[in-house]
Amino acid sequence: MTSRTPVILGIAFGILITLIALGGILALRQADRIYSGISAVHETHESADRILSDLRLKVQLSGIIVRDFLLDPSLESPRLYGTQISELATSLDADLTRLEKLMPGEDKAQVRRLRKEVEAYLASRQPLFLIDASRKPQVGWQTLQDPSINRRASVLAVAEQALKLNETERKRQQDAIEEGRQQFRAHVIRLLGLALPLGLVVAVISIVRISRLEIRARQQTEQTERAEQEMRRLSQQLVRVQEEERASISRELHDEVGQMLTAIRLEVSSLAHLRDEAAEVFQSRVAEAKRLAEEAIRAVRHIAMGLRPSMLDDLGLGAALEWQARDFARRYGVPVQVRLEGSLDGLPDQHRTCVYRLVQEALTNCARHARATAIGLRVQREPSRLAILFEDNGAGFNPASAQGKGLGLVGLRERVRELGGQVTIASEPRHGTRLNAEIPIPGAAGA
């Protein structure tokens, strides 16, 4: 589970960052569109306003040109003022063309109507320039007062209407921009509505997960500290046991072997003084020396067997286990039933030693604590493993309370664990003990 934490958090943060990034990009694009729309609307309507204002001014200017022409007595005035009117007409046509491009489709009809009014107004001015100079004051004034000819008021009215339409279009587009702003606001709210809960979920998951990992790390630290304390205790106990074993071997060598060798030396020394005695006495002393020598040999052999049985190397694991069972029964009077299933030949030295020491430790515990009256041992070789079952009908114990207290059980488990196996112990007070061990065999099929 711990190894999946970076992946889960990475995916969650990636989704969150991606969502925020996409939302930010979309928000920026939407803001750019709104700003561009506002700028375009502002520029369009300002241009339309300028064109309409210029158009009104030019219409007013055309009236001033006509008035000046009528008041000018010069003979050259028709050509001069006619040129000014022509230039003004060209400028008005260009303004109307630009205005028609700026106005939306539904308002182009109004621009075309304005164009017709302007063209009609300018056309009504052209006959004035054909009036004879002597008749200007009389005919010109009457012409200017004729509504059918003077169309300036209608042109200005149409221009005013176009200006109002431009203002109406400005308001309509401002409303559209406001609608876009509301949509942008809704988009930002939706983005926050997605990002904030997702960020909250990611934060909660991260906090919970990190808290669990911290608790687990603290527990692992405590277990490590307990394991270190246990290792120090076991190390001290191991040193003590080694010293006890050395003292035991020293006592056995001194008390048994040393005393027997001393007795043999004394017997051999006394033989020199018995050469002249009767043959029966001499022979009895020789027989006693032989007996002492044999007992010394047996004592040395017993000590050697306790340290490392030679038959484990010479005769194999099965013979060593059967000798161990017979020796235990002889010493403590408790029968041990041994069942060997499958061939135990060809096992690696580590496996033979491990099984032998496992059985030795189990028998030693029975002798010290179990007070058993019957013991069963079964060693079964399967294609890929060794299965060992050891059970007795002794006093039993609580495995949980004995966990880690005995160096023998710890050493037994460590031996089996080094070979990739495992040991399970089932026991209850007054119901005996059952020990199961499984050890894989290297190089076997399925191992």
Task: Identify the notable features of this structure and list them briefly.
447 residues; alpha+beta; Heat Shock Protein 90; 2 domains; rod-shaped
Give a summary of the structure in a few sentences.
The chain contains 10 helices and 5 strands. It is an alpha+beta fold and 447 residues long.
General description of the model:
With 447 residues, the protein is of the alpha+beta class. It folds into 2 domains: 2-208; 311-440, Heat Shock Protein 90. The protein has 10 helices and 5 strands. It has a 5-stranded mixed β-sheet with strand order 1-2-3-5-4, with helices on one face. Helix 5 packs antiparallel against helix 6. The protein is rod-shaped.
Strand content: 5-15%
Number of helices: 10
CA-based shape: rod-shaped
What's the multimeric state?
single chain
Number of domains: 2
Order of helical and strand elements: HHHHHHHHEHEEHEE
| Low-pLDDT windows of residues | none
Distance between the termini: 28 Å
User: Strand order across the biggest sheet?
Assistant: 1-2-3-5-4
The chain-level mean pLDDT equals 76
Strands, helices and their partners?
Layout: H1 5-71, H2 77-102, H3 108-125, H4 136-145, H5 152-271, H6 279-307, H7 310-314, H8 317-332, E1 336-341, H9 349-370, E2 375-381, E3 385-392, H10 407-418, E4 422-427, E5 433-440
Helix pairs in contact: 1-2, 1-5, 2-3, 3-5, 5-6, 8-9, 9-10
